[in-house]
Amino acid sequence: MEYAVLRLSDRNDHTKYFDLKYKLIKNDFVNKWVECVLEAQQKQCAISEPWAIYNLNDTLNSSFVKDKLNELIKKVNSESKIFDREIEEIDDQDTLNYIHSIFEKHHGKLDEWKSKSLFHGKSENFRKNLSEINQIVHACEETNGAQKIRVVYFDLPKYKKFTESDYKLFTNKRCFGSLYHLYCDVGKNIESLTVDEDDHHHDIVPNIHFSADCIAYFKEDTDLEVMDLEKRYQTYVKENEKPLQKKGYANKDIRLTTGRIELGRLETKLSNNELLTRIKEFDNIQSLSLI
Question: What is the pTM of this model?
Fold first, then answer.
Protein backbone atom coordinates (compact mmCIF):
# COMPACT_ATOMS: atom_id res chain seq x y z
CA MET A 1 0.00 0.00 0.00
CA GLU A 2 1.45 3.36 -1.04
CA TYR A 3 -1.41 5.76 -0.38
CA ALA A 4 -4.23 6.45 2.04
CA VAL A 5 -7.25 8.23 0.57
CA LEU A 6 -9.58 10.15 2.84
CA ARG A 7 -12.87 10.84 1.04
CA LEU A 8 -15.04 13.75 2.17
CA SER A 9 -18.56 14.18 0.89
CA ASP A 10 -21.82 16.05 1.23
CA ARG A 11 -23.81 14.19 3.90
CA ASN A 12 -26.99 14.63 1.85
CA ASP A 13 -25.43 13.63 -1.47
CA HIS A 14 -22.48 11.22 -1.40
CA THR A 15 -21.97 11.61 -5.14
CA LYS A 16 -20.48 15.02 -4.30
CA TYR A 17 -17.06 14.21 -2.85
CA PHE A 18 -13.48 15.34 -2.52
CA ASP A 19 -10.46 13.06 -1.98
CA LEU A 20 -7.42 13.84 0.15
CA LYS A 21 -4.57 11.60 -1.04
CA TYR A 22 -1.69 10.84 1.34
CA LYS A 23 1.62 9.32 0.32
CA LEU A 24 2.37 6.88 3.13
CA ILE A 25 5.70 7.16 4.92
CA LYS A 26 7.83 4.04 4.77
CA ASN A 27 8.57 2.64 8.22
CA ASP A 28 7.55 -0.31 10.39
CA PHE A 29 4.94 1.59 12.36
CA VAL A 30 3.07 2.76 9.25
CA ASN A 31 3.00 -0.88 8.12
CA LYS A 32 1.37 -1.81 11.44
CA TRP A 33 -1.14 1.02 11.09
CA VAL A 34 -2.00 -0.20 7.58
CA GLU A 35 -2.73 -3.63 9.09
CA CYS A 36 -5.15 -1.97 11.52
CA VAL A 37 -6.98 -0.20 8.68
CA LEU A 38 -7.23 -3.47 6.77
CA GLU A 39 -8.59 -5.15 9.92
CA ALA A 40 -11.24 -2.43 10.20
CA GLN A 41 -12.21 -3.00 6.58
CA GLN A 42 -12.31 -6.78 7.00
CA LYS A 43 -14.59 -6.45 10.04
CA GLN A 44 -16.67 -3.86 8.15
CA CYS A 45 -16.23 -1.31 10.93
CA ALA A 46 -17.91 1.96 10.07
CA ILE A 47 -16.26 5.31 10.72
CA SER A 48 -17.82 6.16 14.07
CA GLU A 49 -17.87 9.93 13.73
CA PRO A 50 -18.42 10.91 10.09
CA TRP A 51 -19.09 14.47 11.35
CA ALA A 52 -15.62 14.96 12.94
CA ILE A 53 -14.40 17.79 10.69
CA TYR A 54 -13.18 20.53 13.04
CA ASN A 55 -12.97 24.25 12.25
CA LEU A 56 -12.93 23.62 8.50
CA ASN A 57 -16.60 24.48 7.97
CA ASP A 58 -19.46 25.83 10.07
CA THR A 59 -21.00 22.47 11.01
CA LEU A 60 -19.43 22.03 14.47
CA ASN A 61 -20.08 25.58 15.67
CA SER A 62 -20.22 26.39 19.37
CA SER A 63 -24.03 26.43 19.54
CA PHE A 64 -24.33 23.05 17.81
CA VAL A 65 -21.78 21.20 19.97
CA LYS A 66 -23.16 22.66 23.23
CA ASP A 67 -26.70 21.59 22.33
CA LYS A 68 -25.47 18.20 21.09
CA LEU A 69 -23.62 17.53 24.35
CA ASN A 70 -26.67 18.32 26.47
CA GLU A 71 -28.88 16.25 24.18
CA LEU A 72 -26.57 13.22 24.60
CA ILE A 73 -26.47 13.68 28.38
CA LYS A 74 -30.28 13.60 28.45
CA LYS A 75 -30.34 10.44 26.31
CA VAL A 76 -27.86 8.65 28.59
CA ASN A 77 -29.67 9.81 31.74
CA SER A 78 -32.99 8.55 30.35
CA GLU A 79 -31.59 5.01 30.69
CA SER A 80 -29.33 5.49 33.71
CA LYS A 81 -28.88 8.83 35.49
CA ILE A 82 -25.11 9.15 35.78
CA PHE A 83 -24.73 12.84 34.88
CA ASP A 84 -25.87 15.50 37.34
CA ARG A 85 -25.04 18.56 35.30
CA GLU A 86 -25.10 19.90 31.76
CA ILE A 87 -23.00 22.55 30.02
CA GLU A 88 -24.26 26.14 29.99
CA GLU A 89 -21.21 27.94 28.59
CA ILE A 90 -19.03 26.22 26.04
CA ASP A 91 -15.84 27.69 27.53
CA ASP A 92 -16.60 26.30 31.01
CA GLN A 93 -13.55 24.02 31.09
CA ASP A 94 -14.19 22.81 34.64
CA THR A 95 -17.65 21.48 33.72
CA LEU A 96 -16.27 19.91 30.54
CA ASN A 97 -13.56 18.20 32.63
CA TYR A 98 -16.21 16.99 35.09
CA ILE A 99 -18.44 15.56 32.35
CA HIS A 100 -15.43 13.81 30.83
CA SER A 101 -14.56 12.31 34.24
CA ILE A 102 -18.05 10.74 34.45
CA PHE A 103 -17.49 9.16 31.04
CA GLU A 104 -14.06 7.87 32.19
CA LYS A 105 -15.49 6.44 35.41
CA HIS A 106 -18.32 4.51 33.81
CA HIS A 107 -16.77 3.49 30.50
CA GLY A 108 -13.39 2.40 31.85
CA LYS A 109 -10.30 1.73 29.79
CA LEU A 110 -10.74 0.62 26.20
CA ASP A 111 -13.06 -2.46 26.20
CA GLU A 112 -13.50 -2.53 29.99
CA TRP A 113 -17.11 -1.34 29.55
CA LYS A 114 -18.09 -4.79 28.27
CA SER A 115 -17.76 -6.26 31.78
CA LYS A 116 -19.56 -3.42 33.58
CA SER A 117 -23.07 -4.03 34.89
CA LEU A 118 -24.09 -0.50 33.89
CA PHE A 119 -24.25 -1.59 30.25
CA HIS A 120 -26.28 -4.76 30.83
CA GLY A 121 -29.85 -4.55 29.62
CA LYS A 122 -29.35 -1.15 28.00
CA SER A 123 -30.27 -0.19 24.46
CA GLU A 124 -27.72 -0.50 21.66
CA ASN A 125 -27.39 3.29 21.66
CA PHE A 126 -26.50 3.62 25.35
CA ARG A 127 -22.77 2.94 24.95
CA LYS A 128 -22.70 4.83 21.64
CA ASN A 129 -24.21 7.92 23.26
CA LEU A 130 -21.83 7.71 26.23
CA SER A 131 -18.81 7.41 23.92
CA GLU A 132 -20.05 10.28 21.80
CA ILE A 133 -20.27 12.47 24.92
CA ASN A 134 -16.52 11.99 25.28
CA GLN A 135 -15.94 13.17 21.73
CA ILE A 136 -18.36 16.10 21.92
CA VAL A 137 -16.60 17.30 25.09
CA HIS A 138 -13.42 17.48 23.02
CA ALA A 139 -15.34 19.17 20.22
CA CYS A 140 -16.44 21.86 22.70
CA GLU A 141 -12.80 22.32 23.70
CA GLU A 142 -11.78 22.63 20.06
CA THR A 143 -14.31 25.16 18.75
CA ASN A 144 -11.51 27.69 18.23
CA GLY A 145 -8.70 25.16 17.93
CA ALA A 146 -6.74 23.60 15.11
CA GLN A 147 -8.32 22.74 11.79
CA LYS A 148 -8.40 18.96 11.59
CA ILE A 149 -10.25 15.83 10.51
CA ARG A 150 -10.49 12.87 12.90
CA VAL A 151 -11.14 9.31 11.77
CA VAL A 152 -12.14 6.90 14.54
CA TYR A 153 -13.42 3.32 14.70
CA PHE A 154 -15.08 2.66 18.07
CA ASP A 155 -15.90 -0.95 17.14
CA LEU A 156 -12.31 -1.90 16.33
CA PRO A 157 -10.57 -3.54 19.34
CA LYS A 158 -7.66 -1.50 20.72
CA TYR A 159 -5.07 -4.10 21.70
CA LYS A 160 -1.87 -3.20 19.84
CA LYS A 161 0.80 -1.34 21.82
CA PHE A 162 3.58 0.99 20.76
CA THR A 163 7.09 -0.47 20.84
CA GLU A 164 10.27 1.34 21.85
CA SER A 165 11.11 1.91 18.19
CA ASP A 166 7.62 3.34 17.60
CA TYR A 167 8.07 5.94 20.36
CA LYS A 168 11.21 7.20 18.62
CA LEU A 169 9.00 8.26 15.68
CA PHE A 170 6.79 10.55 17.81
CA THR A 171 6.81 14.27 17.08
CA ASN A 172 5.11 17.23 18.76
CA LYS A 173 5.18 19.24 15.53
CA ARG A 174 2.14 19.25 13.25
CA CYS A 175 2.66 19.87 9.55
CA PHE A 176 -0.08 21.30 7.35
CA GLY A 177 -1.98 18.51 5.63
CA SER A 178 -0.11 15.59 7.16
CA LEU A 179 -1.85 12.49 8.49
CA TYR A 180 -0.97 11.19 11.98
CA HIS A 181 -1.95 8.37 14.31
CA LEU A 182 -4.61 9.35 16.86
CA TYR A 183 -4.67 8.75 20.62
CA CYS A 184 -7.13 5.90 21.23
CA ASP A 185 -6.80 5.09 24.93
CA VAL A 186 -9.57 6.02 27.37
CA GLY A 187 -8.48 8.63 29.90
CA LYS A 188 -6.26 11.66 29.45
CA ASN A 189 -2.68 11.73 28.28
CA ILE A 190 0.07 14.16 29.26
CA GLU A 191 -0.81 16.45 26.36
CA SER A 192 -4.46 16.87 27.39
CA LEU A 193 -3.76 17.22 31.10
CA THR A 194 -1.14 19.89 30.46
CA VAL A 195 -3.57 22.00 28.45
CA ASP A 196 -6.91 21.65 30.27
CA GLU A 197 -5.71 21.55 33.93
CA ASP A 198 -8.21 18.79 34.77
CA ASP A 199 -8.78 18.23 38.51
CA HIS A 200 -11.62 15.74 37.89
CA HIS A 201 -9.83 13.07 35.84
CA HIS A 202 -9.62 9.51 37.15
CA ASP A 203 -6.46 8.34 35.49
CA ILE A 204 -3.35 9.48 33.68
CA VAL A 205 -3.24 7.36 30.53
CA PRO A 206 -0.31 8.18 28.24
CA ASN A 207 0.11 7.00 24.65
CA ILE A 208 0.00 3.20 25.03
CA HIS A 209 -2.23 1.72 22.33
CA PHE A 210 -2.77 2.43 18.65
CA SER A 211 -5.35 1.39 16.10
CA ALA A 212 -6.63 2.48 12.70
CA ASP A 213 -7.70 5.82 14.24
CA CYS A 214 -5.95 8.77 12.62
CA ILE A 215 -6.08 12.54 12.29
CA ALA A 216 -5.28 15.00 9.52
CA TYR A 217 -4.10 18.47 10.58
CA PHE A 218 -4.32 21.65 8.54
CA LYS A 219 -2.02 23.69 10.75
CA GLU A 220 1.72 24.27 10.61
CA ASP A 221 3.36 24.52 14.02
CA THR A 222 6.36 26.83 14.34
CA ASP A 223 9.50 25.60 16.05
CA LEU A 224 8.92 28.13 18.84
CA GLU A 225 5.39 26.82 19.42
CA VAL A 226 6.72 23.26 19.62
CA MET A 227 9.51 24.22 22.02
CA ASP A 228 7.04 26.01 24.30
CA LEU A 229 4.66 23.06 24.26
CA GLU A 230 7.41 20.55 25.02
CA LYS A 231 8.56 22.64 27.99
CA ARG A 232 5.00 22.62 29.35
CA TYR A 233 4.79 18.84 28.95
CA GLN A 234 8.12 18.41 30.75
CA THR A 235 6.96 20.69 33.56
CA TYR A 236 3.75 18.70 34.00
CA VAL A 237 5.66 15.40 34.19
CA LYS A 238 8.12 16.84 36.71
CA GLU A 239 5.38 18.33 38.91
CA ASN A 240 3.41 15.06 38.83
CA GLU A 241 6.33 12.67 39.26
CA LYS A 242 4.88 10.92 42.34
CA PRO A 243 1.37 10.33 40.88
CA LEU A 244 2.98 9.01 37.70
CA GLN A 245 5.22 6.65 39.69
CA LYS A 246 2.16 5.33 41.54
CA LYS A 247 0.68 4.53 38.13
CA GLY A 248 3.83 2.61 37.22
CA TYR A 249 5.55 5.23 35.10
CA ALA A 250 9.13 5.84 36.18
CA ASN A 251 11.03 9.05 35.52
CA LYS A 252 11.81 9.29 31.79
CA ASP A 253 9.62 6.26 31.07
CA ILE A 254 9.44 6.01 27.27
CA ARG A 255 5.66 5.51 27.53
CA LEU A 256 5.39 9.15 28.63
CA THR A 257 6.52 10.21 25.15
CA THR A 258 4.24 12.95 23.82
CA GLY A 259 3.02 13.81 20.34
CA ARG A 260 2.01 11.62 17.44
CA ILE A 261 3.50 9.59 14.58
CA GLU A 262 3.27 10.95 11.04
CA LEU A 263 1.66 8.41 8.72
CA GLY A 264 1.50 10.19 5.39
CA ARG A 265 1.91 13.48 3.56
CA LEU A 266 -0.75 15.12 1.46
CA GLU A 267 -0.23 15.22 -2.28
CA THR A 268 -2.10 18.07 -3.95
CA LYS A 269 -1.60 20.76 -6.58
CA LEU A 270 -3.78 23.19 -4.63
CA SER A 271 -2.37 25.95 -2.45
CA ASN A 272 -3.17 25.78 1.27
CA ASN A 273 -5.91 28.41 0.92
CA GLU A 274 -7.39 26.72 -2.15
CA LEU A 275 -7.41 23.40 -0.29
CA LEU A 276 -9.17 24.86 2.75
CA THR A 277 -11.78 26.50 0.51
CA ARG A 278 -12.42 23.17 -1.20
CA ILE A 279 -12.72 21.22 2.06
CA LYS A 280 -15.21 23.77 3.39
CA GLU A 281 -17.77 22.49 0.87
CA PHE A 282 -18.01 19.08 2.61
CA ASP A 283 -19.39 17.99 5.98
CA ASN A 284 -19.06 14.21 5.97
CA ILE A 285 -16.16 11.74 6.26
CA GLN A 286 -17.26 9.10 3.80
CA SER A 287 -14.35 6.65 3.82
CA LEU A 288 -10.69 5.91 4.43
CA SER A 289 -9.15 3.60 1.87
CA LEU A 290 -5.71 2.24 0.99
CA ILE A 291 -4.32 1.90 -2.52
Answer: 0.86
